[in-house]
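idk why but the lab printer keeps eating my pages so im just putting this in chat instead. protein + pyridoxal-5'-phosphate:
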Amino acid sequence: MVDLKSQYQKIKDQVDEAIMNVIDSTAFIKGPEVKEFQVALESYLDVKHVIPCGNGTDALQIALMALDLKPGDEVITADFTFAATVEVIGLLNLVPVFVDVDRDTFNIDVDELNKAITPKTKAIIPVHLFGQCSNMERIMEIAKKHNLFVIEDTAQAIGSTYTFSNGERKKAGTIGNVGTTSFFPSKNLGCYGDGGALFTNDSALAERLNAIVNHGMYKRYYHDEIGVNSRLDSIQAAVLRVKLPNLDAYNQARRDVANYYNNAFLAVDELETPVISEDSTHVFHQYTLKTNGINRDDLIAFLKNKGIPAMVYYPVPLHHQKAYIRPEFKDENYPITLELCKSVISLPIHTEMEKDQLEYIIESIKEFFI
Ligand SMILES: *Cc1c(COP(=O)(O)O)cnc(C)c1O
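predcted complex ->
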């Protein structure tokens, strides 16, 4: 699905040098590379504070820990996403409330979100799925009206830009109270291990997040609250510092692949190509098609036979996951998620795809439909 090796080869000299410098300096934890990357990312995102941490799941947990929520408070998120988002809600004894998604963008349906709000609702976690932003203008309006926190899960959409109706443009993750992301190797900005970060424009919140990632420590060895130990190590930061200047080019390469696929699949009635929302750029963390009128498993098996990986993100709605099932979650409230789980298929997409690889995948898929 991704080709991290070819990408590495193009930046090998810079990456190797950066990693060797960290090893030479032995500043493995909290070295200067971490600060340098943090500042570079703040500037790229045009956000006041970036707080690096250990991974994208920790980032979500730390964001929730900083909001003074009480056990039993409700946090709304999408039914169609990766489980990390909901896992941390549960871990903190908060109550996850799932909402169906939009048929076209796969992101949280804002009308359904509005309906799901109760007096116990305290926060919303929109997930910018597959690479484009949720409807942040409406989400921020709803949040303001009901006094809710907004945590943007930007693990799949770093570098994507949202445009408000007044023309104002902001990077994904810098619109809500906090944004979180993951630097898992296969993400759009991936390191060579685990990594994550939080973003915020709220300086008081940033101070709190910085303390929580470091054992709740505001002053050395003074622990004012319970925190965690979640760090981006210097070697990962060094890799990310080298890769960040390429992020826009990487995202463009992904868009080019998506366009190539889109043109090829126009002629295939059984495949619906991704819909790009009007208010967000798409950074194509995944290239996800909707299939109709075919047996998806047959297509996946056919492609596998030809050496082409294809994945289903995600086969099971969160409201069906054993860990999160509650009697309140009724199938009739999640028609789109249920349909998507049955019909979507994601094709290989990465920054180093060659034209002949793309042609081979496209020809193979067309062959299936003959
Ligand atoms: C990858 C991902 C995460 C988790 O990131 P990790 O760094 O693997 O912990 C969270 N949310 C979404 C939507 C993701 O895709």
